[in-house]
Design goal:
6-stranded antiparallel barrel, 2 domains, Rossmann fold, Elongation Factor Tu (Ef-tu), domain 3, elongated, alpha/beta
Length: 307
């Protein structure tokens, strides 16, 4: 899959069938939309493109408000590539933020990409101040000669799958439920950095990672997880919190990999969350904490995530 931010690069392979949206999390609703996109591209004899934004529009429109996401660009791109898309176009929102709805259609979709088909979700909006919706895009498709396919809400357990719903589930700590909506386990990734070495002092080597500040995290607590290191997956337990037994002052994400003791400082790792285990607790002493961690490890060894 090619990833680009340049119109000229995309124009080389025009015409396109294009899916439009933010694709945060690339959840089951997004996957259905991309499945239809690929079918359209085969039918039209074109390549497929997902057109989204390098930076979420709300971060630019509401700069003083902290916007949390499910996936960063790296993870989002990885998943979209796995779904068989030919090109991911990462638009600079500032390029189009003041464009009217019809100007966006004509200047970008038609003139830049020679679009043959557009696939959108039922609640898609576009143009300055969100003036355009799915019905409006359908009208412009008729005017400019391209198909518009509107995909209905994808429902799970009677709920429309959406990025906002998934963020809420993640924050609640119900990580075992997230896969029903994402189609995979929720994960975070980052480079292993030096922490306060509390785990190593107790005999439990942990990997602390730097997670981007705009990524949604589960609530504080201990989780059954699996951690990918250097291409291999290991059982792990992960703590999100402040390490109250050691009077920690900053939130950290640290994972203890079972049956692993290599030095991985500076390595990129990915932590997959399976199940919430318990609250983060301030223990009376280190001995009690060690006893609890050993219990957590035994539980994780016995726990097998549902496939």
């Amino acid at each position: 899959m090619k990833i680009t931010e340049h119109y000229d690069e995309a124009a080389k392979n025009a015409p396109w069938c294009i899916a439009l949206g933010s694709f945060d999390g690339v959840h089951l609703g997004h996957k259905k939309l991309i499945e239809i996109l690929r079918e359209e591209a085969v039918s039209a004899g074109t390549q497929s493109m997902v057109y989204t934004f390098h930076t979420h529009p709300r971060k630019i429109l509401i700069p003083d408000r902290h916007i949390y996401l499910i996936t960063d660009n790296k993870k989002r791109s990885e998943i979209i590539e796995q779904l068989g898309v030919d090109m991911l176009y990462l638009e600079d929102f500032n390029n189009i933020r003041d464009m009217g709805a019809e100007d966006f259609v004509k200047n970008i979709l038609v003139d830049r990409f020679s679009v043959k088909s557009v696939v959108i979700g039922y609640n898609y909006r576009f143009g300055a101040k969100g003036a355009g919706n799915a019905a409006v895009l359908k009208e412009y498709g008729d005017k400019y000669g391209f198909r518009v396919i509107i995909v209905d809400a994808y429902e799970v357990n009677g709920h429309a799958v959406s990025s906002s719903l998934i963020r809420h589930i993640i924050r609640s700590g119900s990580v075992d439920k997230v896969s029903e909506y994402l189609g995979r386990d929720f994960s975070v990734h980052g480079k292993v950095v030096y922490g306060k070495q509390n785990g190593e002092v107790m005999g439990f080597k942990t990997a602390n990672i730097n997670v981007k500040k705009d990524i949604t995290l589960p609530k504080k607590g201990v989780y059954h997880t699996s951690t990918k290191v250097l291409g291999r997956l290991y059982k792990s337990i992960t703590n999100i919190g402040f390490n109250p037994t050691f009077n920690g002052e900053s939130l950290s994400v640290e994972t203890h990999l079972l049956d692993f003791c290599d030095d991985i400082y500076g390595e990129e790792i990915e932590i997959f969350f399976h199940k919430y285990k318990r609250d983060e607790i301030k223990f009376k002493n280190v001995e009690e904490l060690v006893k609890q961690i050993n219990s957590d490890i035994r539980d994780r060894l016995e726990y097998e995530p549902l496939e």
